[in-house]
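Notes from hallway chat w/ T.B., transcribed later so I don't forget. T.B. wanted the structure written out for a chain they're using in a teaching module, and asked if we could keep both sequence and structure tokens in one place. Agreed to drop them here.
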Amino acid sequence: MTRPRLLVLRALGLGDLLAGVPALRALRRGLPEHELVLAAPAELAPVAASTGVVDRLLPASAPGRAVPRHLDWVGPPPDVAVDLHGNGPPSHRLLQTLTPRRLFAFAHPRTPGIEGPQWWAEEHERDRWCRFVEFYGIPADPADLRLPNPPGSSPAPGAVVLHPGAGAPSRCWPVERYAAVATALRERDRRVVVTGGPGEDELVARLAGQAELPDTDTFAGGLPFGRLSALVAEAHAVVSGDTGIAHLAVALGTASVTLFGPVPPSRWGPPADPRHQVLWHPGPDGDPHGRRTDPALLRIGTGDVLQALDRLHGLHGLDGFDGLTRSPHAS
């Protein structure tokens, strides 16, 4: 007998998928007899598999954060289609073309036939999607976001991972400041590695050059998910902007320092936990897809990052962080 099929649209990036894990797990529990098909970028297949709830990934993507033009859905219509992509209407209409028996989606004035919940712009991403599935009678827990430890070994166990890139320049802290942090850490015999996603090779090379890091401690070009997750899982701490690797650190329970700029941590930040230090200077919202570093992000100094690492030292009794904030680079 053919299983009923549940199609979930979230054709976005790594951080978006990880922020959606609590809602995905709720859907899995609420509709256990369904095959859960996730429409997402093909490169996220290993991430989807690691959640333990996705049966199959349907490759779907579009430039930026746009809605895909079509879905390569084969066979009868989905029994349930769930729009975890956004508040519509393009994503609503894409799923409507498949004529699902039931459609879960946020309400939107241009798709009046959908009686979903209201979209709240200021809501945290994890809370938003859990509230969304609860509207349809499925209990959800925003804290249900942990991933199991990866099976592979880290290429740099115990290192501090610096990740200077992000989805847009507005969320990228200056490379020179990352390099100052790296130099201060290395002066205290802490290993530092630098990671970067596809298209960020120049960014990684600049940081590595300024901090005089060896080639063995630079990982450019976008590590495969298995290797990246092993690196993060065994890291001393992860320092990054508001991007996918910050969400991965949270999912794996790794200490982190996340730098926020155009978007406040109240919408995309980690759960309240001293293991996850958040740096943000309140101010008006900026453009998370802008071409220049957001002014709020520029107000974060290298000393702020080193102090955050000191707080992690105080929490965990970690060696190697003593006196970092007294470094001449912490300015």
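Follow-up for T.B.: The chain is about 30% helix and 15% strand. Might be a good example for the class.
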